[in-house]
Design a protein that fits this description.
This protein has helices at about 10-25, 30-40, 45-55, 90-100, 105-115, 125-135, and strands at about 55-65, 65-75, 80, 85-90, 120-125. It is an alpha+beta fold and about 160 residues long. α2 (about 30-40) packs across α3. The chain is globular and about 45 Å long. Bound molecules: zinc ion.
Length: about 160
């Protein structure tokens, strides 16, 4: 019996991960890699490469816990990318996901990790909850601001 990968998303992830390993070995993205990725990702690859070129991929490492958060800076806001889950907080993610595709932020994150073309930012754990809240908020809140002292701790 042969196993078939019916879900397109799976093959996209697999393809991307395979090429990322090659990229990592070569230390950079070459034409060979682009030629493999381009037919699958098309415009999304171009946008991902643009994000890499602009250094819009950021890796936050929170200390002392060592928690890692990947951020891709988009046109209007910053997007939280979870590489292990192939998850992103952008609006496009749901749309792409249902079509079996990855959004370009995830592609950018994976390529950035493979090439090392990202900004490494170390922050204190105390900032983690605040930043996560910001990244997960899909709309800008215009309501009154509270002092941080009044904020209740949530986990
Ligand atoms: Zn996204």
């Amino acid at each position: 019996m042969t196993e078939k990968t019916g879900r397109p998303k799976f093959s996209e992830v697999k393809m991307l991960e395979t090429v990322c390993k090659e990229v990592q070995a070569d230390g950079r993205i070459t034409k060979v890699h682009r030629d493999k990725l381009s037919p699958i990702f098309g415009q999304r690859l171009e946008k991902a490469l643009e994000a890499l070129g602009d250094r819009r991929v950021k890796k936050y490492v929170f200390q002392p816990s060592g928690r890692i958060v990947w951020i891709v800076v988009g046109k209007e806001r910053e997007y939280l990318v979870m590489p292990a889950a192939e998850y992103c907080t952008c609006d496009d993610f749901y749309f792409q996901f249902h079509q079996g595709h990855l959004c370009y932020h995830i592609i950018a994150q994976k390529l950035a990790e493979a090439t090392g073309e990202f900004d490494l930012i170390e922050d204190d754990d105390q900032l983690f909850d605040i930043l996560i809240k910001e990244w997960k908020t899909t709309e800008v809140r215009v309501s009154k601001k509270h002092e941080s002292a009044a904020e209740e701790s949530t986990t």
